[in-house]
Write a structure and sequence with these properties.
heterotrimer; A alpha/beta (115); B alpha/beta (429); C mainly alpha (381); A: 115 residues; 3-stranded parallel sheet; two-stranded antiparallel ribbon; 6 strands; C: 381 residues
Chain lengths: 115, 429, 381
């Protein structure tokens, strides 16, 4: 999970652990970039990060690392064009904050099952 | 002989009076500065900043980067500008006829291609040789022009800029990621704002990773540490206070945000002065007041810009000389404003202050130092008296620096190590 | 970023300033006296010593206070953060029934945690958090209605309300839109934008009409709202220049197509800023102002460059011969920006004509502009 807001990170972590997952957290662009190369079941990505943009990370994942890890964007950016951009870059889903926990879990299960 | 003695002593008393008044004003401005910074911090809403970013409520900005011979650092600098946290902005690098490989470095790093750009020369400048666009970053423009000085380069950048706000920076300024957001917000919320200045802090000793300041540590040399204090004093006590009085004369060339339309209307930067940054601000004030327009020019303690400060005496002396010359030039060019009630607190308080204390200060100091041995040889001094006096001067200096540091560390969480702070605190003079 | 405790520090600074003034003042007096041989050397020395002493006292005061203060705040902050995180965990787990919550009242940090969670979650979790916030019964009521609260406290309360988004709190917020202090008005407007729901939205709109906020701020508010349409509509019909401008800007940015027709009526407005805003809005919406050709012609011939530029840009949406013809003419406009707008508009409308212009257009500047726009278009693709 790539997220710099500690509250969001905490809530999602709690929920994921409850469901039996083991999330790892990256709080800024640089550390996220290093972690992305590993084999994850899914990535929950925030767009507004210190040190860089989440979209850049997505681009890096898809174009340079050429990985097809399912990516779920969870961002405060509500503009349509951001959503379009993210989906075009290869994200599987785009959720805006405030988000629905149930929906997040559903999305995750759906795409992890596929990927 | 008696009369001469008396005159010399009178002069010494005058110096004392000058010194007393100056220090008292400094302390007073510490109070004002504190008030202003406190008010600002209280009014700042982190929540609204987040909202602004998320909802596209911002004004796009053109960042103008004038550069001369900076082949070693230009690529890193431009990279840091390109990675700012801002939804829409462009970076215009104006290479002012560099004689080293600055342009080549840029071409390589950013894959520049030449573009025949048609643009409007609103402000006359030295001829432009070529304009380049980057294949990697669509919002980067590089201008190669004949050498004309920093003001001329900025004017060239202004001609090409397309956004309503522009930000004038030094090539070696390192902006805080949120600096633009916090500064430009002020323009959005108040139509009258013409210019915003932020806080400049010395970069020396900081830990930088990939163009982002990770932590601030104290630099090693005494000279650099003293400059940290100096900047803290100048900004938090000086500019904060002036801004609170609506009489801010200086917005540093290292980081300032302006409305492009206002700058164009004022005719751009003046190329015949060394203090072009201050000159533009003074002209903004003057024009607005003469036209009877309601306007605001503010300093905000928040938006942060880091810049490298000289670490050796020669460079420092040259820099300060240049500043002083600039100050004199501006004061002279706008001498009509001095003591002129038409210009409000600017003419009646700010400019006279700068004249008597900032501009004339070194003169008075120099004469004081010069006369001291003279007095000694003429037998007009008691040694212990002189020592006491010196101690007093020292004491006041330390006190003022303490006030500045106190203010700064009160506001920011920038020096995380308590030990560093204590060191800074006591390493004064 | 800001730390508490500045009041004490301000007092300290004031003391220091006062001490300095005393010391310096006395020194100056004494020395002036000495100058005119009214006072002797011993007095001067004594004054100097006194000044030194006072400075020493001031120094000691400051020296003691600042490091202590830092050490204290540092520890406190670390502690607070730990407690805050604990509360976030607790509430998160409680959402699934896996943690028990102590009965309210809860400490300040717990409330902060709740407010942050409210920002983060919606849906049924969001509702549970909303219920908890109500249970916590925070003191906003007392702060905002009271007479003695300080401005920072009120600002904090308004911001907390903005985060909590409880619809019933709108009543607390609206009176602040009439407050003499502009900072509080703006904070209240922001809070109102986030809180208002259902009928509250129009209530807020009406209150904003009286608030006298600058247009930039109004635009912010409109963009913040979840359902801005009723307020935009209200502003367009009953607002003054500032409100109308903000409404038109918001219309375009939020893509409120239902109000596009209202925007067209502003194409004839005497205020040039409103005309321009209307044109921008229509352009953003992609709404062709059919039937308004003669109105646009007026703007196209206006002495003001920005009006001509906006009108030119809007022509691209008309997609008819009239537009093509006028755009061709506008390529020879004396202003750089209008020529550019014309070239770009022509490029989207009819690239063939633009290519023609690049070759045979009589005016050299127009030709150059056409060529440049063509080149940029090819570069982008």
């Amino acid at each position: 999970m790539v997220e710099d807001d500690p509250v969001v990170a905490k809530v999602v972590e709690v929920v994921l652990r409850r469901e039996g997952h083991a999330p790892t957290l990256a709080t800024d662009y640089a550390s996220a970039r290093t972690l992305l190369a590993q084999d994850w079941d899914a990535v929950i990505l925030d767009l507004n990060l210190p040190g860089g943009s989440g979209l850049d990370l997505l681009r890096y994942l898809r174009k340079e690392l050429k990985l097809s890890t399912p990516v779920l964007v969870l961002s405060g950016m509500k503009q349509e064009r951001k959503k379009a951009e993210a989906l075009a870059l290869g994200a599987q889903a785009y959720l805006t904050k405030p988000f629905n926990l149930g929906e997040l879990l559903r999305c995750l299960e759906e795409h992890v099952a596929q990927g | 002989m008696e009369i001469l003695g008396w005159l010399l002593f009178a002069y010494q008393v005058f110096v004392l009076f000058y010194f007393a008044l100056l220090n008292f004003l400094y302390a007073l401005s510490a109070l004002f500065g504190l008030g202003m910074v406190a008010r600002y911090a209280r009014e700042l809403s982190e929540l609204s900043l987040k909202d602004l970013l998320e909802r596209d409520a911002y004004l796009p900005v053109s960042i103008l980067v004038p550069t001369y011979n900076e082949e070693k650092s230009i690529v890193a600098s431009v990279n840091s500008f390109l990675s700012l946290h801002y939804p829409e902005f462009e970076v215009i690098v104006v290479a002012d006829g560099p004689r080293d490989r600055t342009l080549e470095m840029l071409k390589e790093a950013f894959r520049l291609v030449e573009e025949a750009k048609v643009f409007r020369k609103a402000i006359p400048t030295r001829p432009i040789r070529a304009i380049y666009r980057s294949l990697v970053y669509p919002n980067l423009l590089v201008v190669d022009k004949e050498n004309g000085g920093k003001a001329d380069a900025l004017n060239a950048g202004l001609n090409l800029a397309r956004y309503p706000l522009f930000c004038a920076v030094d090539a070696d300024s390192l902006l805080d990621a949120q600096a633009l957001l916090r500064a430009s917000r002020l323009f959005l919320e108040d139509d009258r704002v013409l210019a915003v200045g932020g806080t400049i802090r010395p970069l020396n000793g900081a830990v930088i990773q990939e163009g982002v300041v990770e932590a601030l540590r104290l630099p090693k040399s005494f000279l650099e540490r003293v400059q940290i204090l100096d900047y803290a004093r100048a900004f938090f006590m000086g500019r904060a206070g002036w801004s609170a009085m609506d009489a801010l004369l200086i917005i540093s060339g290292a980081f300032g945000l302006f409305r492009r339309e206002a700058a164009l209307r004022a005719g751009g930067y003046r190329t015949d002065t060394v203090g072009e940054d201050m000159e533009l601000v003074v002209r903004f004030h003057r024009q607005a007041r003469e036209e009877g327009r309601d306007y605001r020019i503010i300093y905000t303690p928040d938006p942060i810009c880091y810049t490298e400060v000289p670490s050796d005496w020669t460079t420092l002396r040259r820099q300060r000389n240049r500043w002083h010359r600039g100050l004199w030039e501006v004061l002279w060019n706008h001498r009509a404003m001095l003591f002129n009630p038409r210009y409000g607190r600017l003419g009646l308080v700010a400019m006279p202050y700068f004249l008597f204390f900032e501009a004339l200060g070194p003169v008075v100091e120099m004469m004081g130092y010069f006369l001291l041995p003279v007095f000694y040889f003429l037998g007009f001094i008691h040694i212990e008296f002189a020592i006491l006096f010196f101690l007093l001067a020292l004491g006041y200096g330390v006190l003022l620096s303490q006030l500045a540091v106190g203010l700064e560390t009160l506001l920011l969480q920038r020096y995380p190590r308590v030990w560093d702070r204590i060191l800074l605190f006591f390493w004064l003079s | 970023m800001w730390r508490r405790g500045e009041r004490l520090y301000a007092l300290l600074v004031f003391l220091v300033v006062a001490l300095e003034a005393l010391a310096l003042g006395k020194l100056v007096l004494v020395f002036s006296g000495r100058l005119f041989h009214l006072l002797g050397y011993p007095q001067a020395q004594q004054a100097l010593l006194e000044a030194l002493f006072l400075t020493g006292v001031a120094l000691i005061l400051l020296s003691a206070y600042i490091p202590l203060y830092h050490a204290y705040t540092k520890t406190k902050e670390l502690w607070d953060r730990k407690v805050f995180e604990e509360w976030v965990s607790r509430f998160s787990l409680a959402l699934f029934g896996e943690a028990a919550l102590p009965p309210p009242p809860w400490p300040r940090l717990a409330l902060e945690a709740l407010l942050h969670l409210r920002e983060t979650l919606e849906g049924d979790c969001g509702e549970r958090i909303e219920a908890w916030i109500r249970q916590a019964n925070p003191r906003w009521n007392r702060v905002l209605k009271g007479r003695l609260a300080s401005r920072p406290a009120r600002l904090d309360a308004l911001e907390a309300l903005a985060q909590a988004r409880l619809p019933e709190t709108l009543g607390l917020i609206l009176p602040y839109l009439r407050h003499p202090d502009p900072v509080l008005r703006l904070a209240a407007a922001r809070a109102g934008a986030r809180v208002a729901q259902g009928e509250g939205i129009l209530q807020l709109g009406r209150a904003l009409l009286q608030a006298g906020l600058p247009r930039g701020a109004l635009l912010e508010i409109l963009l913040l709202q979840n359902q801005a349409t009723p307020v935009v509509d209200l502003f367009l019909r009953e607002g003054q220049v500032e409100e109308r401008w903000a409404a038109l800007e918001a219309l375009g940015r939020l893509k409120i197509h239902t109000l596009a027709v209202m925007a067209t009526s502003f194409l004839e407005d005497p205020d040039p800023e409103l005309k321009a805003a209307a044109m921008r809005a229509l352009w953003r919406l992609g709404y062709a102002p059919e039937g308004y050709e003669d109105v646009l012609l007026v703007s196209l011939k206006d002495a003001r460059e920005f009006l001509r530029a906006h009108a030119t840009r809007l022509l691209a949406l008309l997609k008819n011969d009239f537009a093509r013809r006028i755009l061709w003419e506008m390529l020879s406009d004396p202003s750089f920006y209008v020529r550019r707008a014309a070239a770009e508009a022509l490029g989207t409308l009819d690239p063939e004509t633009l290519r023609e212009a690049a070759q045979v257009y009589p005016d050299p500047y127009g030709r150059a502009m056409a060529a440049q726009v063509l080149q940029e278009a090819s570069w982008k693709s």
